[in-house]
Fold:
Amino acid sequence: MADALPTEETIREALRQVDDPEVHINIVDLGLVYAIAVDAGKVRVTMTMTTPACPVGPFLTEQVEQVVRALVPEDTQVAVDLVWDPPWTPDMMSEMAKIGLGWSV
Structure:
């Protein structure tokens, strides 16, 4: 457990541990993480799924919360907001994710 709040970039890098179990690519490279806000005593991750009907949504949001909680002091508020606007599109994926899925870049 950390004593100070991590930076947005540290959190983003840690979230690369969270893979979408359907495509086996991390949620950052898939473009599912829209924003990370680090403020006094609070971390908020805003993310989406590839579709509102995504069956692994609850699993992924729980994984995100666990990864963030491992980085922050115990009394830090951690929120994971699941949003649908803007809707996810394949264009949001990193080049690495596109290559991993066999999509030409």
Notes: The helical segments are 8-14, 57-69, 95-100. The radius of gyration is 14 Å. The beta strands are 19-20, 25-26, 33-39, 42-47, 77-82. Residues 5 and 72 are 5 Å apart (CA to CA).
